[in-house]
UniProtKB/TrEMBL annotation:
A motif (Histidine triad motif) lies at residues 96-100. It comes from the Bacteria. It comes from Desulfurobacterium thermolithotrophum (strain DSM 11699 / BSA). The active site is at residue 98. This is Histidine triad (HIT) protein. SUPFAM superfamilies: HIT-like (SSF54197). It holds the Pfam family HIT. Residues 3-112 form the HIT domain. One of its GO terms (molecular function) is catalytic activity. InterPro entries: Histidine_triad_HIT (IPR001310), HIT-like (IPR011146), HIT-like_sf (IPR036265).
Length: 113
């Protein structure tokens, strides 16, 4: 079972900030910004390449969850960044789709090194 499935199943601890029937969101263990949250679907979908028509509603739902977390945690107005990595060249390390949510300071330009 992958690391995020273990967090979803509560077999691994995480600082959960939001949970519903479709997703769980928790603080990244190695934050890259003052606020760094991962929003993860409960369904084990390895990468963006594995998304199908049936996932359309889930994907839309995740953006609404990101919006809700931003509002509830108080950084909606200042702003934030949502990011997804796909496969090796995209820098993906955990092969269970997750949306990075970064906030808490001006994040500057996106740099793709
Ligand atoms: P990726 O590079 O796959 O897009 O991002 C994986 C993210 O998961 C990284 O930012 C990494 O710090 C985070 N991460 C890896 N293992 C764990 C864990 O066990 N718990 C939490 N909370 N985050 C993790
Ligand atoms: Zn998984």
């Amino acid at each position: 079972m992958c690391v995020f499935c273990k967090i979803i199943n509560k077999e691994l601890p995480a600082k959960i900030v939001y949970e519903d029937e479709l997703v769980v969101a928790f603080h990244d263990i190695n934050p890259q910004a003052p606020i760094h949250i991962l929003i993860v679907p409960k369904e084990h979908i390895p990468t963006v390449n594995d998304l199908e028509e049936k996932h359309k509603e889930l994907i839309g739902h995740i953006f609404l969850v990101a919006k809700k977390i931003a509002k509830d945690m108080g950084f909606a107005e200042n702003g934030y960044r949502i990011l997804i990595n796909c496969n090796k060249d995209g820098g993906q390390e955990i092969y269970h789709i997750h949306y990075h949510l970064f906030a808490g300071k001006p994040l500057g330009k996106m740099i793709c090194e």
